[in-house]
Design goal:
The protein has 3 helices and 8 strands, in the order βαβββαβαβββ. The chain is of the alpha/beta class. It has 2 domains: 1-62, 2,3-Dihydroxybiphenyl 1,2-Dioxygenase, domain 1 (Roll); 74-129, 2,3-Dihydroxybiphenyl 1,2-Dioxygenase, domain 1, CATH 3.10.180. It has a 4-stranded mixed sheet with strand order 1-4-3-2. Strands 5-8-7-6 form a 4-stranded mixed sheet, with helices on one face. Helix 1 (15-24) runs antiparallel to helix 3 (82-95).
């Protein structure tokens, strides 16, 4: 079997808030309707669909994770320099994201971590070659 494409589906409380947050960070919209808003991430256009939680609950036949109690996944966003990590930090703060890990060195890299308004976690990582 050959996998042609993979994407992520996450549950959110407020589509308009989610659309505004990811738009302010400069991600490319991939469509929206009454049940989801969708964005493309990175050069390969990795897609994340953000579904309203009721629709998401039906799709997975379960409750959405309570992100105040734990973690479902963490996405990593690559940066080209420590300066770009700091640019992301400012953009995330301005868009209303929550910083859960301040900028710091890790092995030979540099990163910070943030959560979107629904608690979905990301880190922005510079890892020199």
């Amino acid at each position: 079997m050959k996998t042609k494409k993979i994407w992520a589906n996450l549950g959110v409380e407020d589509l308009a808030r989610t659309t505004k947050f990811y738009s302010e960070l400069g991600f490319k919209p991939n469509g929206t309707n009454t049940e989801l808003t969708s964005f493309m991430f990175g050069e390969d256009n990795f897609i994340i669909h953000f579904f309203v939680k009721e629709r998401f609950k039906w799709a997975v036949n379960s409750e959405a994770a309570d992100l105040t109690q734990g973690n479902e996944i963490i996405f990593s966003i690559s940066a080209d320099s420590t300066d770009e990590v700091h640019q992301w930090l400012l953009a995330v703060k301005n868009a209303g994201g929550a910083i859960f890990a301040e900028p710091q060195s890790f092995e030979k890299g540099y990163f910070f971590g943030f959560a979107d308004p629904d608690g979905h976690k990301f880190n922005v990582l510079y890892w020199p070659q």
